[in-house]
Amino acid sequence: MSEVKRGYVRPLDIRHGRIDLSHGSGGRAMAQLIEELFAAAFDNEFLRQGNDGATLPVPAGGRLVMAADAHVVSPLFFPGGDIGCLSVHGTINDVAVMGAKPLWLSASFILEEGFPLADLKRIVESMASAAKDAGVPIVTGDTKVVEQGKGDGVFITTTGVGVVPDGRELSGDRARPGDAILVSGTLGDHGMAIMAERESLGFSAPIESDTAALHGLIEALLASGADVRVLRDPTRGGLATTLNEIARQSKVGMMLQEKSLPVNPEVAAACEFLGLDPLYVANEGKLVVIVAPEDAEQALAALRAHPLGARAAAVGTVHEDPHHFVQMTTAFGGKRIVDWLTGEQLPRIC
Amino acid sequence: MSEVKRGYVRPLDIRHGRIDLSHGSGGRAMAQLIEELFAAAFDNEFLRQGNDGATLPVPAGGRLVMAADAHVVSPLFFPGGDIGCLSVHGTINDVAVMGAKPLWLSASFILEEGFPLADLKRIVESMASAAKDAGVPIVTGDTKVVEQGKGDGVFITTTGVGVVPDGRELSGDRARPGDAILVSGTLGDHGMAIMAERESLGFSAPIESDTAALHGLIEALLASGADVRVLRDPTRGGLATTLNEIARQSKVGMMLQEKSLPVNPEVAAACEFLGLDPLYVANEGKLVVIVAPEDAEQALAALRAHPLGARAAAVGTVHEDPHHFVQMTTAFGGKRIVDWLTGEQLPRIC
């Protein structure tokens, strides 16, 4: 993003203006949009370099982590958040679950012609605020515009880079029989916030998305000294899909206890109403932790001591299983297979 | 991208299949798409880690560079390339013009429901081939699907990370009065290839896009020892817009010589037919070089010795100008201002 000063151009009319194709042309209108909206909100020393990319210091030691997420959530605004903060949290979390300290983000926007500048400003300010709160600056980016009917308001793709300290090994293939499975809080809040908004369910208290940056919670967990094997954020496909991925990667089976799964009552009610299972509903501020059995209590205590982990719970255990099944002991004492998500339950949830 | 082996699922029907919403759900269909299409084509040691992000070695010394590009080009396939190779070249070039060796790419896909898998495969293979030729692996990514009519086939956002050796300083604010302005070849090929395809101009020989990765050309140029001040790839908005950006950042004026500007005759003819100026038309495999006057010949020779710089030319000079104007001595000996691109000349060119 390049900074351009043109005192003789009228400032953007944020209140009434709309995105048009010239905002993606590479010319004067694009420079103005970048300067007055993006650069103003995201301002930091790297973005201020004003080149096609950002120059950044090489971390001293460790390994780099790189993760990317496209965000196409619909609606763009929902109780508890919007596509802006979600696009910051989502990628920070993908970097953080690798055990890395997130350092920088890139942000690319695909805007639809006719999109109100006021909405874009609200989204950009939400991103800026999320990035600032997380201490992870947006250092470079891009803006494209597509014709009306060829996009849907705004899509935001973020890529994050972070650094893992030497000696820290977290990976989806490290779960071992006997390990405990923890979750950092209630399941399904994000997905049901979106669905309730989309279906205009109109509960008396709206369900709020749990969208949050998890790197602080993860640092607190790892600082406890617990032998954490795997961290994941159970987004699309929910806890069920995330555990199936880990079971497959680690070549193990898992057994969940249904009665241990934390679910907010209003989420449970909305799921029942819509015929959905909270195990498959997306979270955007929750952590799955696979931890050595002897350290489970210690890990749980560390999670619960952090504001984002107050409702953390031990929800199951890892065992040997040549089929790599995830199963669940139901509230009635029976057993069932918790399979991969099949088909499309909740499109455009993130 | 996680690798999943499921022998009991039928392989994707690439020939007749289409993207549906389940391919973006986070569940089994998405895992299959990633495994059979993306992971198979992009295969490398980092992607094979199978986690939410890639773990990468920290470069020894230098500074990191990070650059991002969203690609929304229409049509998706055009003479000389497609959105796949373009999305690799575009971001590699943004990293390389900072003087950096490009190391890794992330790739995020926003797919429209109903998009043919055969077209997606062609695009993914073009990306894979471009990444392999450039020696820059795609190490992580994401896939989202939007409903029919809410996207346009496929949008691809890539982010690149590279490393600049210590002591190498290239930036848009380093042009100085007296410096020479070089371009590495003919102007406007990419933009006119897209426009000719879109307008079905049907020239006897189709205009081919110049899409190419420029890091090899840049290394050859810098290895010549010439004191290069600024490098840029003149994409959206063309040479005119890129030079205006540099003039503004460096607080200088520039004078171009119209008769020195290399333009392919068929591009010149198509521009004339459509009322476009090649100075404002996008390039995707060309370099603007601002170089110390005493090193201009040496830099030009280095560019011309490389296959991508065979038609390199000196096209103007930098001078003092408190207004930071870019001007041009026309073929008829007059002078005109070469202003920023205003309005939208060529939507969705990249």
TrEMBL record, chains A, B:
CDD domains: HypE. Pfam families: AIRS, AIRS_C. InterPro entries: HypE, PurM-like_C_dom, PurM-like_C_sf, PurM-like_N, PurM-like_N_sf. GO terms for biological process: protein maturation. Residues 50-164 form the PurM-like N-terminal domain. It comes from the Bacteria. Residues 176-327 form the PurM-like C-terminal domain. Belongs to the HypE family. This is Hydrogenase expression/formation protein HypE. It comes from Azospira restricta.
